[in-house]
Amino acid sequence: MSGVLPLSSREDEPFIGAGNGDSLAIEMEQETSTSTSSGGSSRKKNSRLKCFGVDLSPDNVAVAMVYFVQGVLGLARLAVSFYLKDDLHLDPAETAVVTGFSALPWLVKPLYGFISDSIPLFGYRRRSYLVLSGLLGALSWSLMATFVDSKYGAACCILLGSFSVAFSDVVVDSMVVERARGESQSVSGSLQSLCWGSSAFGGIVSSYFSGSLVDAYGVRFVFGVTALLPLITSAVAVLVKEQRVIGQARGPNVPLGNSSFLKSSKENIIQLWTAVRQPNVFLPTVFIFLWQATPQSDSAMFFFTTNKLGFTPEFLGRVKLVTSVASLAGVGLYNGFLKNVPLRKIFLATTVTGTVLGMTQVFLVTGLNRQFGISDEWFAIGDSLILTVLSQASFMPVLVLAAKLCPEGMEATLFATLMSISNGGNVLGGLIGAALTQIFGVTKDKFDNLAALIILCNLSSLLPLPLLHLLPRDDSDTASKVYTELEESGEENCKYHGTVTTTSPKLSSIEMT
């Protein structure tokens, strides 16, 4: 949504209360089971650790930790912004283009699903790719900390880091999709809350230090520290329960020239298209794409708050801390009160409210907030907090809907496709925002038309609302409807061939879904 201040981090803290029996605080459930033997009966007690109402099995812990890493990688977000602005001397439009370019790996997530499902690495389809993703992420940020000194080098390294996160995202999301399929909207919402709550908690861990470390040690130091974080993804790969693929004794299996592999890939693409073109999948996907594709003014606002208002990296780190907590509050708002509310009502309420509140950024640009006795700093914090809660609460239904649209046997690839389309809309919105920034003449030291740009971007958020009817009225049996349509279309053999893999999402260019 364009109504989110660029000061806000993405997306992702102290846990707040939730309803419907779920808890954002970690809880212990003691379950007593009675087993009968020939000599009598005995009672066995099993303790199950839960978070967001979800059992913390090793697989779920691995998923949560990967999302945690995605959140904690926000440590480098401010460093990247200041590096592009101060070290490379880019203007707002160029910064938006570079960050948009770095988001490209999130647009081809189905490809990662095909690779992971069809090409086991050292006998594993999940573990090995998680390890590899972590190593690539560490490499990208290590290069940023040492050798990179141009906008092209920075774009390539950020692209590599984004690729590592996107691939690991694919590898964990199928676990979420497998568990969400056939479950109620409430259970699916709890699973997504665990994922995004973990990401939000990671954002809290890194938020304050993201600014203070830039102030104290510089951007290169922050990039070096960030290089250590993707290694956590490699480490938690051992928690994933996975059977070794038979026949993979030692090296990797790369059957790219195998005719059966090519035939299987072709069949998968045909089956994927057959699923996507079904009305119950295609129409909601069109709405989500358009909803995400509205223009954004984030880069312009970042330059205004730093160059015009003089916000320091340390202060922006504090804002990021607040918005990280707000992001978790958004998860809690959805998990506690909105996950049983029809999707159309959630989108309508959050979009309209976010648009209206997003207009208040004009107060900051024009200085009207000071006429009411509110300092720029406090106004920025309050505005970012409210908008981030709304943004996160409105994005959660997108994840739930995408997970429930996936029929059995196509979980990983179809979910990856839907998230790629959503991310594509987000990237398009950023590029449209960059073009409008250029058209309105907003530069790193000229902000005369920034208020008009903000108003236009916020009002554009309302444009997709007339298409709300494209969303299902009740998604309780959406997946079964999709599967029925696949059968009716004559695709009897509509199941995806291969082991299920994963995918997921995130809301900034470095940290997407």
UniProtKB/TrEMBL annotation:
Main location group: membrane
Superkingdom per UniProt: Eukaryota
Protein name: Folate-biopterin transporter 1, chloroplastic isoform X2
Keyword list, A-Z: Membrane, Transmembrane, Transmembrane helix, Transport
Cellular compartments annotated: Membrane
SUPFAM superfamilies for this protein: MFS general substrate transporter
Gene name per UniProt: LOC107928585
Protein family: Belongs to the major facilitator superfamily. Folate-biopterin transporter (TC 2.A.71) family.
Entries under Pfam families matching the protein: BT1
Keyword Transport part of the UniProt annotation: yes
Bilayer topology term: Multi-pass membrane protein
Organism of origin: Gossypium hirsutum
